[in-house]
Amino acid sequence: MTDTSLQPVPGSGPRTRSGTGASNLGDDPAAPWRRTAKSGSRGRKQGVLFRLRDEIPLRHRILLAVIGVASIFVFWLLAATLWSSGNVLVPTPLAAWKAFIDYWQSGELSTDLWASLVRVAEGYALSMAVGIVLGVAIGSFRSVEAFWESPIGFLRYIPATALTPLFLLWLGIDETPKIALIIAGTVFYNILMIADVTRAVPRELITASYTLGASRLRVLTRVILPHSLPGIIDVGRINLAAAWLMLVVAELLAAQNGLGYRLVQLQRFHQVDGMFAILLIFAVIGICSDLALRGLRTLVAPWARP
Amino acid sequence: MTEPAVTGTGTGTRAAPKLVLDNVVKDFSTRRRKTVRAIDGIDIEVGDGEIVCLVGASGCGKSTLLNIVAGLEQPTSGRVTIDGETIVGPGPDRGMVFQSYSLYPWRTVSENVAFGLECIGMPRKDRAERVQELLGIIGLARFADNHPKELSGGMRQRVAIARALAPEPDILLLDEPFGALDAQTRRAMQEFLLLVWQRTRATILFVTHDIEEAILLATRIYVLSSHPGRIVEEITVPFGANRGPSVLRDPRFLDLRDEIQELLTTQVER
Ligand SMILES: Nc1ncnc2c1ncn2[C@@H]1O[C@H](COP(=O)(O)OP(=O)(O)OP(=O)(O)O)[C@@H](O)[C@H]1O
Ligand SMILES: [Mg+2]
User: Fold this and answer.
1) Could you tell me which residue, B81 or B33, shows the higher pLDDT?
2) Reported ipTM exceeds the 0.90 cut
3) Which of B71, B198, B217, B226 is the most exposed place for a label (fewest CB within 10 A)?
4) Residue contact A207–B72, C-beta within 8 A
């Protein structure tokens, strides 16, 4: 009985690779995963475009980006020709561009743009300031976290837009309620996201600093803050969109100038081309601030480049 | 005449103990109010200028012990003293190097090394001198202005060691500092640490699970058991201070290695 396992057993012995016409994979019903035929190569070659999480060639990237932008305009043109009259009126890109030039040359663009920019800047700066102070404190001290967790968890589920009537009632219709709305709509996100950024500081970085003789204040200012800085800039960049959202809500309801106010004025006179121009202005502002904040991040924290 | 206790008060040849752990116990409370004893009844002494190694299996409480000496955790009972003074919190007199890289990624190599010097308020000029000196010792003067992510793993740990040495600590605590390195780099780093020790005469408490590393570096070795961590043996290594990698071929080295291996294996079986 010693050597039987090495003897070829008739009928089930060494498989032959020919004759049956089976494909190179899976011609053994008992073990379909086993490779039995040679095809001259091994492994599965992947195409260049859809590799999971891999870079694609630069030429392809540029081409795809151009196609992406172009398709927006194609859709727009298509919509403009389909709905060129009636209730649902879509202006052509050219009409929107002309409306933009008119808006610009009348001087109203600069007053509106300036008014809106100042509101967002003031409101969002205050929101970020509160967000940084409270967020860093919550992320650093469990006691502060325990104190603020419930109030913030409760308040942040009140839709900020629902506060608009109340703020108008309390604060009148000048700048204050608009700035208050921008703060109300962004500050909780800022606090919670910055707290998360601060919590991500590796514990060992903090303990190592203690063993080097750093006080808690020094750890806070020289370790936790610099480590959190790029993350804080990212938070500011992401939540900036919510600040513009709140600005437009405020300006739609009560304002004498600003991009949102202009939108309502144009609506009254059915000037759809001008409205489209303003929507595009919002998009351009968004892209510009996004790029600027990304640049700021690499400038102040080149070490954190992904 | 009684047998001299294995963990007794030092023999005549040993320098006066710098660091003393007296019956140190640490319990961790886990969920459902249960407590886990991580280390139990630890008595350790480290003399001035010694390199003492703690060897033990993973999870036997080596890091816990080192954290207690660093002042990052408080013992449940027992006392830890340096030069007779009880440790109540972390301080620059006990420099520590961690298993994973803990350099400040936004600081350059020299700025990293300078961190502890800034903390003690050393003037900028003296600071620069001391950093230069330390970078010379660790052989990374050329990389003074590089950021940590531009360095290899071994280089980063060398910077971490220099950073811990900068404020001239009474004792240097190393928690498996070479654990993440490949075998060749590891060997080079061990020789580097010996060199640093011979040049600075620092007192070092070193944690490792690598037996050969312990014998190569230490003047004395404590072998720890697991769950809870207890000291099962104290071994004095017979090689002098001017040892080099040649001890790796010394027959006594192999004997010691087998002896410690044996101790740890019986621990695991138990
Ligand atoms: N904060 C904690 N809470 C609860 N249990 C802990 C805590 N820290 C450590 N322990 C427990 O104490 C024991 C010792 O842990 P420790 O990290 O000191 O081991 P170690 O010897 O350093 O292990 P390794 O070689 O893997 O680093 C482990 O069993 C661990 O589960
Ligand atoms: Mg450990």
Assistant:
1) B81
2) no
3) B198
4) yes
